[in-house]
Each structure stands twice: as C-alpha cells, then as structure tokens.
Amino acid sequence: MHAIEAISLEKRFGTIQALAGISFSVEEGETFGFLGPNGAGKTTTIRILTGMTEPTGGSGRIFGRDVVQEKIPARREIGIVHETSNIYTDLSAWENLMFTARLYNVGKRERESRALDLLSVFGLSGRKDDKTKGFSKGMKRRLTIAMGLINNPRLLFLDEPTSGLDVQSNLIIRDVIRRLAGEGVTIFLTTHNIEEANILCDRVAIINRGRIAAIDTPERLKKTIQSVQSIEVAFDPPGAVRAEDLAGIDQVTGVRKMGDKIRLITGDPPAVIVGVTDYARRSGLRIISINTLGPSLEDVFIRLTGLDGEGGGGGP
Amino acid sequence: MRSVSEYCTGVCTGFSAAWAIARKDILIYYAKPNIIVSGMLFPLFMFLAFALGRPADPATMVPGLIAITILFSSSSIEPVSIPLERRTKTFERLLSAPISLHMVVLGESMSGFLYACCIALVPLAAGMVLFQTSLPDLPALAAGILLLSFCFATMGTLFAAYPTESPGDIMSMLNLVRLPLIFVSGVFVPMGQVPFPGQIIAYLSPLTYGNDLVQAGFGKATLFHPAIDIAALCIAIGIFQSLANRLYHTFNE
Fold it and tell me: I need a labelling partner for A123 at 20 to 30 A (CA). Which of A142, A219, B92, B120 fits?
C-alpha cells in the first residue's frame, strides 16, 4: 500500500489553476521531497492531502483512505508540521503538547510519556513548564515538530522545517528526520533548501506551475543534466578578478560568484581548467583552489523550473 | 459502512477533542483584557444606563441584566480567539486535526458557554443579596441560563467564521446585531412598548425567548410557555451551528 497516492489532483481557485492534474505516489517508509518555487502548488497539495481543502478534480489517498471521504481516519495516521511555528505562546511547552495529544485522542499515560521523550529529543526538557512566548525561533520550531509527532504518526508532513533557523536547531531537526526515516516513518518534506532535500530525501518531486516537472532520486535527476558541470575556483587576490574576462574563456557558458569563489558553468571542465590557468598567469593571479563539480540538485531545480530563463518561469 | 461501535467511538473522540479546544480557550483567553471588558463591564454599564434615573425598582431589572450579561459574555470569546488564532496560524491546527468541523465549532462555542454560565452567576448573586429577589422556578432559570449561553456562544463562533485576522472586524459586525437586540427583545423595554417592526425582529431573536425563560425563573410574567422558549432556543442553536459549520468550510477553501 502506498503511504500517499495523488491521482490527477486538480485545484482551481476561480480562474486560477493551482494544480493541473498532478499524480505521484510515496511509498511507506520513504522520505519524499517536494520542491518548487513560490506559488508552484506545494502548499495546495499539502492542504489537499491533509484534508484541509478539497480538490476540484482527481483524488488523494493516505494509506489507502480517501482524503475527502475518509478525512478523519486518514488524518489520524498523519502528523502535520505547518510552515509557520504555530504554537500557543500563552501556554507552556508541556501544555502545547498535551493539547495537541488531546486533539488526536492520545491516552493520558501515552501522551505524557511521549511528551517527555519528545521534549528530551528536541532539547526542550529544561523549558518544559515555561510559557513559549519567551522561546527563540529555533525552540518554537522544535516544539512545533514535537507537536507534529505527539500522536506517533506513520506519515509526517513537514513544511519548510528548517527555514531560517540557527545551526543547532537545524542539526537537531535533520537528525530527528533521519531517525524517523530509520524507524520507518514516511516523510513528506517541502523545502526551499535544495541541499537539504538532496541529503535527506530518497526521492524528490519538482513541481512548477501546478504540474510535476520531474520525480526521481536526487542522483538520477542530476544525471539528467550532465551537461551542467562546473569549475569552482578561488583566486588571490579575489578582488582583482573580472567576471567578464572569465565568461570569455572558451567553453564557459555561465559565471556565478559564490562568496570568495567563482563558479564557471561548462560542459567541458578539462578545457576550462586550462583556460583558467592561462587567465591566472596572464593576469598575475594565484589560484588558491580549483574544484570540478557535477550538477547539483539546485541546478536541476533551476533548469526544470525555468529559473535560468530557458524554461517556463516561476509560479503563477 | 461504519458499525455502531465505530460511530460511537468517533462521537466520543470528537467530544473529547471539542473539550480539549474549550479547555485551551479557557486557559488562554478568559483573562484577556478585551474579553473582560466586553463580557463583564459592557453589560454592567448597559444595565446602569437603563436602571439609573428610572422610577422602576432595580430588582425588577435583574432578570434583564442576567440576559444581557449572557448575551455579551457568551459571544465575546470566539470573536477574539479565532481571529487571533488565524493570525498566529494556530487555527490551522484545529482545522487539520482528526475531528469534524462540527466538533471544532462545538469546542469553540463551549468555552463561551462556560464563561457566560459563570459570569451570569454574578448578577444572579447580586440580585439575591442586594434586592432579595426570589427564584420560584429554578429549572426555568437554569434552562434559560444554559440555553441562552450556548445559543449566543454559538452565534459568536458563527460570526468569527468571517475570514479576518482582526478581532475588531468581527466585534463591529457582532455589535451591529447585539445592541439592537437589547432594545427589541423585552430585556429592559417591555415588548408592548416596542414599535411593530421591532416586535417582528423580537420574535426572531433568541434573546426574547432566553429572557422570557429567565423571567419565568424569577416568577415574572412571561410571553410564552417555557416549552416554546426552550424549543425556540434549541432551533436557534441548531441554525447557528449548521451555518457556522458551512461558513468555516466555505472560507477554508
């Protein structure tokens, strides 16, 4: 049985087509990334799959249960972590967890034991009885995820779990996601952090303008655009480098400044390395480091969503 | 097809979740300043505005004070809590929980209901202590307080369905309904003195029937038999609950 099945899902808001008949399935135990630019249809898809809104066409199933006809039993199987850290700031961390557990009808003994475990896992035990008004952004986010897990879900929807967080919170959350995946929990992750999807997800779907542009493993997706390789080079002194000179090197199709480094996009890395060395010699620059990079998931995303100007553009 | 036991379990878990929502509202909103002003002080000042300088014995106005206290206190929680929860996105938690919209509406209304039941005891106690009012028909009074509280709490939840993040927007609309009702529902102004168009509105107003039940509790003359008052309030609760359910569903799309 699939954990999630979306069959020709359509959603129309008046004249705007938010989803144009998307289909995909997520296997039980899989960590599935859902990527797309703003307005691509990610949130609408989550809202349909969690029964918060009804599709105008097609159907969705969670562990075989229809998300419209069997909304409540389907919701019992899932945990939802919304994009915003929607906790009750007038309540303590403990009260927030207890309230969520009661909404999901988790028994008293189980909810108390699970809440204690979750507070410990997310590093919040010491703040258990404090009002969450005084929590940092990272602590609020960690508590939001803990609340999504209080009912021990088989499927967890995570909407931008680490967006804008500090390093400590990021590490804790990614570690928890890996641990949940190891325990067989299915994870549906939407994120703008493509590297996060690359390291956490078994498969990713890229959605653009309400249509699925691609679904595959991160590595297979990268192979689809092998022509996009790059050389990342750091010069000394960095300020003396002129991007237009580098763009003029034979076989270079694009130049991107990446901090103190410069990335040269190419389909022929060996030829560009020779060109870069010549350029450095001519300009009196010293090459500090030079690396050949394959296409990243970000490159795939940019290519498929048309953000490089070649494709269909961003969201509606 | 669901079995009877599955159905019963579903109903029980629904009520349990509704109580969890009410409990959360009690913890968070009962002590908020705007709730206290709207639910307690506003009816007191309305009472004083009617009572001061009038020849009538203030004791005769105690049932009316109880009725308007319930009107304002029961319908004050949700118009504040729901827009605030929309703003903080916590309302999405309720909409995505494994419970029906009916139970969400019920849970929200329960907090207003309990708040009004407690607040109504203040003018009741004051009337008994200060004016030695008697209560010859306690069941009618209890039914009046309970049904009126639940009816207007559900009305508050209904108005809060309007998709705004500002409590002020909902309070403005609500006052447009609540304030005229005081004048036409026989609370302080006898129905006979109300102009004819007002009397038509009075027959559609749940406050008329709730006030009538409270009056019966105090042994005063009433307009209808208590059974009619109870039936009218139950119908109003049903209408408000169904409308609220439909509006939350529509505005959530």
Answer: B92
